[in-house]
């Protein structure tokens, strides 16, 4: 029986498992993931390529293609505007269509491939509004112009008639944000929204998303591999590796006191200005090895083959995600059997 969802929780993922069946075998892309996002909160989901972040986002939206993909276990509980709760894993497709783009918006990773090149951007925003709000084309077109103005595109009356190729990368990403917010969703999933942008435009997009979150009051699941971005946007962080969540914490806590060896490796690999102040270059840390293939089912900790603290027990059983500290509703949890060791325990206090 599904446990009740607290009133302030907009999304709760519980025990989610996603598999892909192919000629080479079964890929275990997501393995027992648990996530919670509260009203008005930004949760950053971080991890390197191949960790399962984008599969998580597609599963939440009900966009995993079947075949080859299958959601084999778990729940994806979404709170709707009327207060009711829907499980996106088991809901009928007609119900999912009323939620996608309407109550959950999504900003995809690469706008040039996400936007249709043969239609003006105004048509693409208006289509979403007509589909979910049942308004006329004229009213939907007006809403498209309004949203372009909201996301900071100058001369929206003219820009709304332009095609994606006529816009810069930053402009196209603003169009994607406008499309995601056009129906006033309560939750937005942003999948690497700044990856293809230069640093200046990236900063503008992040500022825009913070402003819009304040104005619209939405929750955000922000998916990225860039820890520098996480500092700017997130209230909490969930670190994902090998299809599992290995650590979750409030953002400041995670950066100050990382507990999982993978999290510490990610933070150690980030360049720091103070490393070059002495005038002598310092080689960046690199986590040894590569992410294990999802085709190989791991019997123990998925990070064991790359961890410098591994012991035999790490290879024999999957560690549980344990709560190591809490402050009100915010907890610090990690998936490592050695977190009680003196040096790690001291670091995470």
How would you explain this protein's 3D organization?
The protein is an alpha/beta fold and 349 residues long. Helix content is 31%, strand content 25%. The chain has two domains: 9-103 and 185-270 and 285-293, Rossmann fold; 114-184. The strands form two sheets. The protein has an eight-stranded mixed β-sheet with strand order 6-7-8-3-9-10-12-11, with helices on both faces. A four-stranded antiparallel β-sheet has the order 2-1-4-5, covered by helices on one side. Helix 4 crosses helix 5 (137-150), helix 5 (137-150) crosses helix 7 (169-181) and helix 7 runs parallel beside helix 8 (199-216). It is globular. The relative contact order is 0.13. InterPro entries: AAA+_ATPase (IPR003593), ABC_Ni/Peptide_Import (IPR050388), ABC_transporter-like_ATP-bd (IPR003439), ABC_transporter-like_CS (IPR017871), Oligopep_ABC_C (IPR013563), P-loop_NTPase (IPR027417).
């Amino acid at each position: 029986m599904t446990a009740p969802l607290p009133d302030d929780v907009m999304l709760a993922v519980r025990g989610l498992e996603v598999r892909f069946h192919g000629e080479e075998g079964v890929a275990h892309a997501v393995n027992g993931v648990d996530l919670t996002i509260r009203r008005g909160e930004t949760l950053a989901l971080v991890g390197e390529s191949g960790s399962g972040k984008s599969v998580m986002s597609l599963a939440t939206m009900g966009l995993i293609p079947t075949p080859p993909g299958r959601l084999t276990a778990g729940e994806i509980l979404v709170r709707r505007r009327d207060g009711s709760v829907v499980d996106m894993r088991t809901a009928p497709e007609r119900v999912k269509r009323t939620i996608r783009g309407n109550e959950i918006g999504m900003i995809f990773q690469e706008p040039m491939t996400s936007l249709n090149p043969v239609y003006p951007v105004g048509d693409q925003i208006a289509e979403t509004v007509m589909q979910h709000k049942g308004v006329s084309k004229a009213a939907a077109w007006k809403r498209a112009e309004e949203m372009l103005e909201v996301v900071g595109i100058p001369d929206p009356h003219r820009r709304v008639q332009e095609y994606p190729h006529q816009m810069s990368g930053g402009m196209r990403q603003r169009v994607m944000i406008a499309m995601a917010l056009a129906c006033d969703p309560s939750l937005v999933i942003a999948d690497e929204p700044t990856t293809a942008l230069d640093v200046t435009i990236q900063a503008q997009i992040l500022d825009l998303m913070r402003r819009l979150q304040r104005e619209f009051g939405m929750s955000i699941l922000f998916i990225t591999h860039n820890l520098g971005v996480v500092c700017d946007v997130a209230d909490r962080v969930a670190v994902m590796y090998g299809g599992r969540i290995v650590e979750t914490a409030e953002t400041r806590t995670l950066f100050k006191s990382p507990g999982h060896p993978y999290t510490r490796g990610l933070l150690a690999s980030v360049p720091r200005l103070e490393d070059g102040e002495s005038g002598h270059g310092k080689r960046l840390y690199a986590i040894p090895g590569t992410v294990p293939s999802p085709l190989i089912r791991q019997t123990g900790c998925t990070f064991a083959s790359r961890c410098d603290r591994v012991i035999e027990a790490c290879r024999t059983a999957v560690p549980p995600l344990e709560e190591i500290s809490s402050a009100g509703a915010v907890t610090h949890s990690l998936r490592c059997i050695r977190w009680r060791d003196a040096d790690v325990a001291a670091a995470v206090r």
